[in-house]
Amino acid sequence: MRIAAVFLGAALLGCSFQPQGTQFDDPDAGDDVGGGDGGPTADGFRPVDARPTPDAMPGSPDARPWPSIAHVAAGDEVGLASTVDWNITTDTRIDTSDGSIRYGTTIPAGVVIKPVAQEGGGPDLLIVYAANIRVSANVELLARGPRALVLAAAGEIAVDGEVDGSAGRLQDGSMEPGPAGAGPGQGPGAGAGGASSQGYDSGGGGGGFGQAGAEGGASQRGPRTAAGTSYGDAQLTVLEGGSGGGNASPCRQGGAGGGAVQLSAGALVLVNGFVHVGGAGGDGGTQCPGNNGGSGGGGGSGGGLYLEAPQVDGTGVLGCNGAGGGGSGCACFGSGSDNGQAGGDAFAGPSIALGGRGQQSGDGGDGAAGAVAAERGTSATNGGGGGGGAGRIAIASPSIGGGLTASPGFTAVP
Length: 414
Known about the structure:
By secondary structure, the chain is mostly beta strands. The chain has one helix at 74-77; strands at 22-23, 86-88, 92-95, 100-103, 112-116, 125-130, 133-135, 140-144, 148-153, 156-159, 162-164, 168-169, 175-176, 196-197, 200-201, 260-265, 268-271, 274-276, 287-288, 292-293, 304-308, 311-313, 317-319, 392-396, 405-407, 411-412. Strands 1-5-6-9-16-21-24-26 form an eight-stranded mixed β-sheet, with no helix packed on it. Strands 4-3-8-11-18-23-25 form a seven-stranded mixed β-sheet, with no helix packed on it. Strands 2-7-10-17-22 form a five-stranded parallel β-sheet, with no helix packed on it. The longest helix is centred in the first third of the chain and has 4 residues, at 74-77. The relative contact order is 0.15.
């Protein structure tokens, strides 16, 4: 809940491992208190100028973070107090269902882990609240799970490496959305699934969120497939993830949607690395049961990225790009070598995720990135999947540095 109005200046450009942080098991447990044993802050962090008032010191029942955190109700901010830093120095994966660390840097005792409902409705949130949070250079913090991830710090959040809330593909080929993102063919902006007519298949439509996705390619016997539409608003009043691309016909998947990630700091959010929530590419068509060479799946849309602090700065990259649609398979009843190529996963920056190449049939459409909208799948004997649309980036700060690159751009939140 943001209680102070912010006015923008002129510069706009396996086995899981349980964390050791202070945990709130009940999403409604707003009266419990986080906090830790104290300790030195990490080298390189500047002191926090804004301190709690004497009657609301960290560890007291009335303690409140500063600034108040967007998308979090006032009652859920109670207990968010910490004097302990979380310095992420190895590749780390966090599960937003409960804050468990699958691998990498554990969350130290005294850092608060709190699942809450989102104020005003929307996906539930997982808050990780520390004195300061730093992601070291060449290190990735990967977030997956059903809740949107809120990284919050009393002082600074510094990303020299990568915070990745994008969708991806598992080793078994299944899709995994980003935190609070939607799976293939799911979400409010899901692309329509491809359709089969007399053995000819149209491609899946690309997923939409901040922008609409693109249509799937038509087959020789059927029309184009509808793309996913945009939803939500540019200021991310609701913190939510992206939608999935439409499934291919008759047997492959669309790409999953990017996740929802928020960085909230009392002093500074500094991004010299990458923070991104892109979509996953749609599957390429393959030989499905009945000797049916299938179409390509639609690309997943980008997700939602929200930054807030008195100062947001750096020379890094913010991204919520759409993914490429899959290329269609050959309709000549050949072998596995006739499979279409999968669409590319979204990049962090303005580079375009290419659609997959079809095998003697329709190519997938490119995903949205930068100023380029998603591309329709090619119509042919079997259609290629449509590209996924971009998500949304919103920044709430009176001081936004001009060195950041945002793809496809950002909206300033007053």
